[in-house]
Amino acid sequence: MAEPRGNSKSGYALPAILILAFAMGIIGMSFISMAGHETRQSQGELDSQRAFWLAEAGKERAMRWMATRFRPPDTDETIYQGIADAGGGTYSVEVVVDTSTLYSNTKGFMLEAVGNSGTRERRIRQRIRMLSFAQYAYFTDDERTPGGTNIWFIGADQIHGRIHTNGTFRIYGSPTFHGEVTSASDRMIGYPYYHVYGPDGWPIGGNNPQ
């Protein structure tokens, strides 16, 4: 007499469940791995952008530092080293002298700025040159005479070449400027008290510089 047999399908149920669980575990680990990779990639991109802007900030600060020096540097010099940012990054800046311009009126330099954030580093190089006062036909720190009287450019004045003041230009009538006119002030003054903030502000009060 033959022995009774159980349902043959039940013998496959447990292995099938184990295989399915194993496959689901692999899929779950893949998703976790992908999510971790995307997170690291996003953080890397963020660090790269932050490092770039740190280098840019260091470069701009170094340019202001160069502009306020009494004389330009004669040798390579580290201006800033490992300056910390509130966001956790740092920047460093070095000025490299262009030796071919050492004896020239227009000295040249290379600013090398490095920004670091996390594991990322970005570098910016900016070539600059410093002009001498010989480039200007007229250059003043303040538009006043030694006695304190205001200086006015009047209609009969003809100015050839570049002019600059760290003060404020005053215009009376229609003087003519044949070169570039720059000022550290945000305005010019037309006689007697008109404040003009750009070229579109002229003519005003009978004053109209050319």
Protein structure class: alpha/beta
Note the gap between the termini.
124 Å
Radius of gyration: 35 Å
**Uncertain parts:** none
SS element count, helices: 1
How would you characterize the largest beta sheet?
4 strands, antiparallel
Mean pLDDT: 84
- Strand portion: 25-35%
Sum up the overall morphology in one term: elongated
Number of strands: 13
The proportion of residues forming helix, as a percent range, comes to 25-40%
In quaternary terms, these chains amount to: single chain
Protein model, in words:
It is a single chain. Strand 12 and strand 13 form a beta hairpin. The protein is 28% helix and 31% strand. It has one helix and 13 strands. The chain has 210 residues and is α/β, with parallel strands linked by helices. Strands 1-2-3-4 form a four-stranded antiparallel β-sheet. The model has no long low-confidence stretch (mean pLDDT 84). The N and C termini lie far apart (124 Å).
